[in-house]
Amino acid sequence: MNKLPYQVLKRYVSGTATSEEERQVEEWLEKPERPFRQEHILHALWNETQPDVPSSTESRNHTLGRIHHRINLRQSEAAKASRTFHPALGRKESLQILRTLGRIAAVLLIGLLAFNGYEWRAQRVWERNQDELVYHEIHCPLGATSQFVLPDGTKGKLNNGSTLRYPATFRGDAREVELLGEAFFDVVPDKQHPFLINTSGLDVRVLGTRVNVYSYPEEDYQEITLESGAAELVKEAEDGPRTLAAMKPGQHVLYRFGSEAHRKIPRNLEEKELIQLSDQDDMAHVLPGMKPGQLAHLQEGDGDLYLQYTETEAYTGWTDGKLILRNDPMPVLLKRMERWYSVSFRILDDRINEYTFWATFGEENLDQVLKLLSLTGPLSFTKQERKMGPDGVYLPQVIDVRIK
Fold first, then answer.
1. Where does the pLDDT of residue 24 fall: very low under 50, low under 70, confident under 90, or very high at 90 and above?
2. The dihedral of CA 219, 101, 119, 398: what is its sign?
3. CB of 316 within 8 A of CB of 184?
4. What's the distance, Cα to Cα, between the start and end of the chain in Å?
5. 205, 209, 231, 241: which has the fewest C-beta neighbours closer than 10 Å?
């Protein structure tokens, strides 16, 4: 499998995954064709689960010991299971089990421990697995945006904390790129070579299109907003890719998955006419006739796909330097602000997650935004003193959030 929900990987590493989820993770780790995506997702997992652990030899050795301990436990369990439940297994099969666990451990260790020389090694791994093709990578730091022009003339913009990887020359039947984060694409038309945006969720196939794609690997939802042209949402399956929906200009899709308590919800859900779809054929029949104010919902496996016509600027305004909030829950709002201003929020009262906000910020600095939020809601923000990392660079400032 090429796609793996981020929350499943978190549960696997923490030891809370089900047997089926463990199987999915191990199958995903065994696939080498997406090393860029795998390594970045594992890197994001480290940043989330070990936010306060510095990149030092001591910490890496400590982590290495912990992972070795876990791998040893898994090997012992696997060996015991083979003796207890599969007495017919020979030495060859047993060695295969251990080799599989070893490869899984190696990938996890690479993703978790490769801080120094990370980008260089990722580039080499990717090139080696792409038949000598040369790939370029653009990384946009937190608190900034970056413009790009691809080899076919496609232009766009990369939002804060995002990474885009693309080949030096497009080859084959499709122009494929990989996105981790958020980007706006103004795609050059080419009917013979569709433009395919690979993400950690649904892939987006377009021809000549202006489209915004939001898909950070550490979050359990993604959003696609079509400004003009046409786009198809593609999901990888065991029998190959399949199209879930064909979008029209002005439409917005929210695809959410995972099991987090405060997942992204469709904006103004209570005000919209909900159209419940039963399958993809139903989707193909309903979408062309949808009107503003209607919201189509399709249950897709473990995920939910919502589609509606919308004010596209609410999702593309960042390209003009605007942070637009439209009934967004606080966890979503604070995560966007963390990337926008390169800070880190610490929620100290779970009741905060119940609040939503409407706002548009342009040239306001962080202090002004925090003041406006505290005036419009019962929130209190307390800045902590910035700390310096072991490399001499200051870490993002931590801001505590409380109910007044």
1. confident
2. positive
3. yes
4. 47
5. 241
